[in-house]
Amino acid sequence: MNQLAEVRTNRPALRLVSTKDLSREEWLNVRKRGIGSSDAATAVGLNPYQSPLELWMIKTGREQALPKQEVNDESSPMYWGSLLEPIVAAHYTKKSGNRVRKINAVLQHPDPDKAWMLANLDYVVVGSDDVQVLECKTAGEFGARLWREGVPEYVQCQVQHQLAVTGKSAADVCVLICGQEIRIYRIERDDILIERLIELERRFWSFVESDTPPPVDGSESSALALQCLFPHDSGDTLDFTADRTMSSIFADLVTIRNEIDSREKIEAELKQTIQQKMGTASRATFETGTVSWKRSKDSVVLDISAALKEIPDLISKYPLVRPGNRRFLIAT
């Protein structure tokens, strides 16, 4: 049996553990045992919000170094996504006519060779031959742009991972856009995509099993992970002069930095030319777009220097230590 034939197996997923009475801490520990559907896009480098390196830190037990995500933080998209999930599901049923129910279990791929593939479904669709899984999403003002042309790539990865684990043939994605628009998208099982997804996820999982960090990807998430992995410097100096690969990377970095500086100067000059022409105008229109140049409202802040002069012991009474960050400086 070839790999594609294995992907097409219709054996039901295994119920790894019930989540009905599971604490959040226990649930997070279960998730460390494999790659869940919400991890899939990150594992293959397609999640715009998280890097493989940050996910690797979580899977290898290094998440204590990362900033904690507060479950009850009302400014967090995760908080509102969890709170609104039942409402999205109810509106899905209202619009589609399909009934849904919760599974309350972490599912595991039935193939022992893919036991690291886990899935935690939002809902299963009951009594439909056309679709078996429901994934509920919410998108705010900024996240909505990712849905302009349909289901974002990272969500497609999540759903195809779910179909791979469960052996099901189709899933609906129901998304609430900006709290006022419900959209439903059908995603059919794609065995060729699943085959590639498994290959890339298996590669990521090998980094976890070997405790080897995956390559960085240039994202803010990777930058955060590096700061958390290596918060302090030792004072040592590494000699890369004989390492042709690292020396080439450094040379490319210097070249790119110089190009950015040059481009930023050009950008500033172009912007200033438009500002000079605008004068006191608030807005200008062009053949291909518009710009605005408006004064923001005045704000009142504390003059810390003046306060410390008048009350010198203020800082000793109310000290706030801000941890330092390692700065990356280039010298040529």
TrEMBL record:
SUPFAM superfamilies per record: Restriction endonuclease-like (SSF52980)
InterPro entries for this protein: Lambda-type_endonuclease, NF-kappa-B_Signaling_Reg, PDDEXK-like_dom_sf, Restrct_endonuc-II-like, YqaJ_viral_recombinase
Taxonomic superkingdom: Bacteria
One Pfam family from the record: YqaJ
The YqaJ viral recombinase domain, residue ranges: 26-168
Protein name: YqaJ viral recombinase family protein
